[in-house]
From TrEMBL:
This is Arylsulfatase. Its EC number is 3.1.6.1. Pfam families: Sulfatase (PF00884), Sulfatase_C (PF14707). It comes from the Bacteria. Keywords: Hydrolase. The gene is atsA_157. Residues 1-22 are annotated as: Disordered. The keyword DNA-binding does not apply. The lineage of its organism: Bacteria, Pseudomonadati, Planctomycetota, Planctomycetia, Pirellulales.
């Protein structure tokens, strides 16, 4: 049987959202008929998105079987928001979860869990860009087109039509700063200070990409690095003055000042997080002095490979550790510095602290990689790619030491944080068209307000469905309540997951993630196929809910196509005729 239906929020706006969701969950015939009519719509014009229709068809066939407060008020009442997002952190790398099994401790991250809520069924995305995009936009990465890892010079990035948490908090009196890794595009138009943040100081790519110019085989052709190499660590500020300067590779500067502080070399990687941390703490201090509520997104480089440890920190994790363990201790120490700062400023009780990571760990460079009990690693269809640790603290609001078994995802923080800041109806506003300054944003937020859930006012999470996008913007799997259906399977392991395609299945694999959270049934069970045949008949509700989600792409189609590393797809783009649709 499927898990019991969730409880609805006491909050009126959440009840309205729940009612709208119920209306979307039409009977299966009506939804399928509606999807058939989408063939002429933009979503169905590409082979990739025609696959969405096939996914729903397979599921159903087998299951048939399937109000703005003023700034003065905001300064006094609105909570500060500090989000710490590590890189490629594994669930088993935190000591409150592994109970010391890894041989080192993470007492500061553990403290957030002890003083707040931790999650067992928390979802990021399958890779860096997708995870960060899901968090900051509140949208499924399929909708923003930010599913693929961003590379230097890519034309794909965060679009001006998609509001960020920073954009939406600004009218509520917040100042916003982003520090550390961005990875949402390296052109000027994609920088955080063009998307609501007042200050940005950080890097724009995954670490191994920034280290490439140091390789002895890096091309020495004149101008190669300038044309194809990565940008350095940038420090930018949002301004009211529009700079029309057109930079040859990075585009128009616009309403921001941009300083390139130099390349992120392997040597600088040893200590660059110190630079990001210092800038973060300076920003927090100034916001506190100015009596402004702040939103700070701190993105340290730990623990993406390659890990470079400064000489004096080697061995700090203890005799059983290695460079990766040392890096985890460095990360935990940074978290501790930020928590101590909040205590010293006397603002800890009025600050929401979220700690998580962008995606699951990678094994391709083990032992320079995280550890997780969930199946496989990042950039796959398995839980190990998406399921990550998360801890949230808000003293006096979130019960200390609580544990959530509900489904919660990165994209849920946009509506949740806006609700905490006094705008619980942001999803409805954006759906109709929400004006901020000179810009009207009209988007569909895929996140849910989980504030009633994490504060203990509601037992269940409002989220019942999670979609697993691939880095190519396809659907690898769906989860509905406790049940996961896998439509595309990555059978490769280690580094080959980045080369080998996911296999599209004729009928989906089925897992019950409450009984089999590590997805071992189809490899270890003696009776999986019989169990599969019996249980697939119960999957009709999953098909209905997934179909309702896919139907929203008629009005809110993908903003852009993800980048491609496949020459055939690149050729198709070059040859594609311009379209007005």
């Amino acid at each position: 049987m499927l898990a019991a239906p969730r409880n609805h929020d006491d909050n009126q706006s959440d009840r309205k959202t729940a009612e709208q969701n119920e209306e979307r969950d039409l009977d299966i015939t009506t939804v399928f008929t509606s999807l058939l009519k989408m063939k002429e719509a933009k979503l169905m014009t590409t082979k990739k998105h025609r696959g969405l229709l096939a996914i729903v068809a397979v599921t159903m066939t087998v299951s048939l079987m399937v109000g703005t407060p003023d700034e003065a008020s905001a300064q006094q009442k609105n909570p500060n928001i500090l989000v710490i997002m590590g890189d490629d952190i594994g669930t088993w790398n935190l000591s409150y979860i592994n109970r010391g099994m890894m041989g080192y401790k993470t007492p500061n991250i553990d403290r957030i869990a002890k003083e707040g809520v931790s999650f067992t069924d928390y979802y990021a995305q399958q890779s860096c860009t997708a995870g960060r995009a899901a968090f900051i936009t509140g949208q499924n990465p399929m909708r923003t087109g930010l599913t693929k890892v961003g590379l230097p010079g890519a034309r794909v990035g965060l679009q001006k039509e998609d509001p960020t948490i920073a954009d939406l908090l600004k009218p509520l009196g917040y100042v916003s700063g982003q520090f550390g890794k961005n990875h949402l595009g390296d052109r000027n138009e994609f920088l955080p200070t063009a998307h609501g943040f007042d200050e940005f100081f950080g890097n724009l790519y995954h670490l191994n990409s920034e280290e490439e110019p140091e390789d002895p085989d890096y091309p020495k052709y004149p101008g190669f690095k300038e044309k194809f190499g990565p940008r350095g660590v940038l420090h930018s500020y949002a301004t009211d003055k529009d700079d029309p300067t057109e930079q040859p590779r990075w585009g128009r500067v616009g309403k921001q000042t941009i300083e390139d502080t130099g390349p992120l070399t392997s040597k600088r990687m040893e200590t660059v997080d110190d630079e990001f941390l210092a800038a973060t703490q300076k920003f927090i201090n100034k916001a506190h002095e100015d009596e402004k509520p702040f939103f700070v997104w701190f993105n340290p480089s730990r623990m993406h490979f390659y890990t470079h440890i400064r000489p004096e920190h080697k061995g700090i994790s203890g005799p059983n550790g290695n460079f990766y363990s040392d890096g985890m201790v460095e990360l935990d120490n940074m978290v501790g510095s930020l928590l101590d700062q909040l205590d010293k400023l006397g603002i800890a009780d009025n600050t929401i602290v979220i700690n998580s990571t962008d995606n699951g760990p990678h094994y391709s460079e083990w032992p320079d990689g995280g550890n997780t009990p969930f199946r496989s690693e990042k950039n796959t269809n398995w839980e190990g790619a998406y399921r990550v640790p998360c801890e949230v603290r808000w003293p006096g609001k979130i019960p200390a030491g609580s544990v959530s078994n509900g489904i919660v995802a990165h994209q849920d923080w946009l509506p949740t944080l806006l609700a905490a800041a006094g705008a619980p109806d942001i999803n409805e506003k954006l759906l109709k068209g929400h004006k901020i300054g000179d810009t009207t944003y009209k988007v569909r937020i895929d996140g849910y307000n989980v504030l009633p859930h994490i504060t203990g006012k509601e037992k269940g999470s409002p989220r019942r469905l999670f979609i697993y996008p691939t880095d190519g913007g396809e659907v690898a799997a769906i989860r509905y309540d406790d049940w996961k259906l896998v439509y595309m399977e990555q059978r490769a392991r280690t580094t080959t997951v980045w080369r080998e395609p996911l296999i599209t299945l004729r009928a989906p694999l089925l897992f019950n993630l409450r009984r089999d959270p590590f997805e071992r049934a189809n490899t270890d069970s003696n009776q999986y196929n019989h169990w599969w045949a019996v249980k697939m008949g119960n999957m009709k509700p999953a098909g209905v809910v997934a179909a309702a989600f896919f139907e929203t792409f008629k009005e809110f189609p993908p903003r852009q196509k993800p980048e491609s590393w496949n020459l055939s797809e690149i050729m198709d783009r070059i040859q594609a005729k311009p379209s007005n649709n």
